[in-house]
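Before drawing any conclusions, I looked closely at one protein, both as residues and as discrete backbone shape codes, quoted below without any editing:
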Amino acid sequence: MSKETILEEIKGMSVLELNDLVKAIEEEFGVTAAAPVAAGGAVAAVEEEQSEFDVILTGAGASKINVIKIVREITGLGLKEAKDLVDNAPKAIKEKVSKEEAEATKAKLEEAGAAVEVK
């Protein structure tokens, strides 16, 4: 049988017959024919697991000086730049970093008393 012959047979099937065929193929080969579909019939992009995260300082808390020290340590900024970043929160401390690095950065900042968000 050629592909053309198979396609001609499929064209002649009703919706119920096609549904049964799809189920039989899924069972026979251990696959799924389900695909996400957006409005208008276009195939939607499959959402990938997030691999890059941003660490955002949302507030300095009560220990502003300690937070500035940690921001300097993490970013390598000078004292004035780190202070400006902390004073103008919410601001991104690190962008497009791995989940592990984002969590470690968040932990350091929270330990110093800062309010931090990972996106």
Remarks:
- The longest helix spans residues 15-29.
